[in-house]
Amino acid sequence: MKNLIIDCSIAGISGDMLLGALIDLGADFNTIHQFVQNIKDFTDELNKIDFKRKKVQRGGITATKIDVFCEETVSERHTKEMKYILEKYLESADLSKKAKDFAKNTLNTIINSEAKLHNQKENHLHFHEMGSFDTLIDIIGVTVALEDLDFFEKCKTYSTPVAVGGGNFKFSHGLFPAPAPASLEILKSFKFPMKGGPVESELATPTGVALLVNLVDEIITFYPSIKPLGIGYGAGSKKFPEVPNLLRIILGEPLEQIFWEDEIYVLETNIDDVTGEIIGFVVKKMMELKGVRDVNIIPMITKKNRPGHIIKVLVDKENIKKASELLMRETGSLGCRYYRCARDIVYRELIPFSIEINNDVFEVRIKMSKDREGNIHNIKAEFDDLKRVAEKTGIPLRELARYIEDQFVKKVLNLS
Questions:
Q1: What is the SS3 assignment for 228?
Q2: Cis amide leading into 198 (omega within 30)
Q3: Residues 376-393: tens digit of each pLDDT
Q4: What is the pLDDT of residues 147-156, one digit of tens each?
Q5: What's the pTM value of the predicted model, to 2 decimals?
Q6: What pLDDT is recorded for position 120?
Q7: Could you tell me the fold of the domain covering 260-344?
Q8: Are 110 and 206 in contact (CB under 8 A)?
Q9: Chain-centroid distance, C-alpha 124
């Protein structure tokens, strides 16, 4: 499995930029060219397609620029017609099911965003700029490039937050601030992070954003640990003095590790005027909250030389705000800190284990952890189960734990 990183944090993304970057990375241009030309077989409204690539400079970096010109009888179409053309094309195209689903999903993402914006049913929508064959060519071209590179089967795709630009631009509905309404609607629907700037121009097009959200598996702030294997640069049409108008993609091989990489968020606050009873209650409430992994209380001395505590919570990204709200509400704290933390973890599973003790049979859950290579790191009986058995048998809990874990190793793992 390879890793693909799409870095759209500086100059955003468009369909032709992503296609140019994939070709720059090694996707076969001639194969893509042939697939693109085949679109003419499924419509009478397209007479000619000029599909060209060239090397250009953007900020001193050499990149691949894709130029598309369509000689079409009309440039605006209803969404029903766009879907019909794409579906008929894909029926006869020699592409995998994952590739075809990706192409369909991308067009549907664009259509859904426009339907929400205009409060209309999908089949009644009329595309303006998006109704040109340029849109379908970008979708098909990127799909074929990804298939040619075998990225649908053997690649995990990451992306940075997408730069959307700023300022105002003109389109069919008049003057509007960047990002385009359709781009913003797509980002909102997929909860995909964005950032403004760094130039006053539209940087994230609806087609580019639709391709991005349907391709990406995980959003990152920092690149994962990889061994770089290839780099592709796709150039945008405009030239900016402030930044190179480039989309950079990186293909990499994950570093060999025996642990799994994961990320968690650390939420914490300092308190020096809360009783022990309240702290205990906060810990209980926090551990009941979805997404919270652990809560720690750390004694400290404050700047006024008063004893206090740091409440530190490990929580999933999706639940950081709820945990922060609970922490401030219950403690009266004036604020909380939180930050992302990368970590290495082992795989953990709970295994039910039946054991006979003093002629009684007990069910005990055993927590076993392993690394990527299958090496066992730890075996431990669940405390609540041990407590229940200890109370029933009268055996000291420490001795009971050692006996049950030894029996599990012998009988289940067949280790002496």
A1: strand
A2: yes
A3: 889 999 999 999 999 999
A4: 999 999 989 9
A5: 0.67
A6: 74
A7: Alpha-Beta Plaits (3.30.70)
A8: yes
A9: 32
